[in-house]
Amino acid sequence: MGILKRLRDLTVASVNDVLDSMEDPVVMLNQYMRDMEVEIGQVEVAVARQVALEKKFRQQWEEALAFVEKRDRQVKLALSEGEDELARRALADKKQYEARAREYETLYQSASDAAQKMREKLAELKEEFYKMRAKKYTLMARAQVAKTQKQVNQAIVGMGSETASRGFARMEEKVMRMEAEADLSAQWRLTNAGLDHSLSKWEKDELDAELAQIKASLLDKKETPQHPEQA
């Protein structure tokens, strides 16, 4: 039983976590306000019915009192005219209306008390509704600020993530290779240009003179006879 209870508690906790993560404060606040409006509407209908019942019992009570007064006058009138039997029937009828009047009075008082309590409950609900409606806009504004701040923080965290860092490092290395290749290409071009420039500085006669010396040296070696021991 202990294991099953823990599993049930874990399941309930997991479901509550999922529901909590799905709840949008703005959506839920609007829903709560709609629920309160529905509740207020239901109480208003109940109050209206109770007030109608209160008026009905009051009317019946007042009608019964009116009949009591009427029968009382009839009893006195019958007695004054010597109509004892008629006076007796009128008195009996008066007693019945007095009993009804007392019954309707009790019902009226009970309905009136219930109606008053329901009116107070309705007033409390409306007051709470107005407070919640005013608070709703504050909470909605705070929720929007928090949501925006969370998005900004997530964006900042995303920019500093390991994946982004590796990507930037790879691009930095690639740029460094491109720069090295560009430097090497520029050095090779400068080397070739320097060689061509140095050759262009030689005067033609100097080149011809040096070539003539090399040529004469080769002819001298060719024409000079070699000694037998050198052969």
Please write the CATH class name of the largest domain. Mainly Alpha
Total strand segments: 0
Number of helices: 5
Please, what is the oligomeric state?
single chain
Q: For the CA atoms, what is the radius of gyration?
A: 57 Å
Number of domains: 2
SS-derived structural category: mainly alpha
Note down, in words, how this protein is organized:
This protein is mainly alpha-helical and 231 residues long. It folds into two domains: 136 residues, Helix Hairpins (Orthogonal Bundle); 53 residues. The protein has five helices and no strands. The chain is rod-shaped and about 195 Å long.
In short:
InterPro entries: PspA_VIPP1 (IPR007157). Helix content is 92%, strand content 0%.
